[in-house]
Fold:
Amino acid sequence: MTKIPMTHHGLQLLQSELNELKQKERPRIIAAISEARAHGDLKENAEYHAAKEQQSFIEGRIAELESKLSHAQVIDVTKLPPSEKVVFGATVSLIDVDTDKTVRYQIVGEDEADIKQGKISVTAPLARAIIGKLVGDVIDLQAPSGMISYEINTVEYI
Structure:
């Protein structure tokens, strides 16, 4: 499997979720299954089947998180030499050429992306279009509403 790029914050989020699932959710589900078994006939026991379904989901998510963490490539942009080049982890300010409206995004791993916090996935079309570009470059991006042109205004490694 290939490496999965993520920031330190993204790594901490995944580790926190994994610990929550292992320390709290897994024991809670085991207790729920045990309690449901005590009610008798398992074939017609809705509580038992619901608890088993939850257990299956949690175990699947634990396996997924462990896999991602084992293949994580943590990139600390604060340790990169300052540059005007857009790279993974950089915070980029873009100016819409048509409207002069400024937007600001940090390029992060897939699991960290949250557009409300200004974090876009490295696999997002906008991120793919600006990675490797320099301050002052203009990129054209096909959006559902039509073509959008952005000028890269600033690049920060914070």
Remarks:
- Residues 96 and 150 are 5 Å apart (CA to CA).
- The chain has two domains: 4-74, 77-156.
